[in-house]
Amino acid sequence: MTDAYAPAIRCPVTDAADWERVATFDAPPPVETDFGLAPYHRELWRSRSTGHVVNRHQMDLSALYQGDYWTRTYGDDAAVRRVFDRIMDLPPERSDNRGRVAFVDGFCRERARWAAEEEGRSLLDVGSGLAVFPAAMRAAGWRAAALDPDPRAARHAETVAGVEGIVADFMSEDLSQRYSLVAFNKVLEHVPDPVAMLARAHAVLAPHGLVYVELPDAEGALEDPEGPAREEFAIEHYCAFSAASYALLAQRSGFKVELLERLVEPSGKYTLRGFLSRPGDAPRPGRCGEAHS
Question: pLDDT band at 40, cuts 50/70/90?
Answer without folding.
Answer: very high
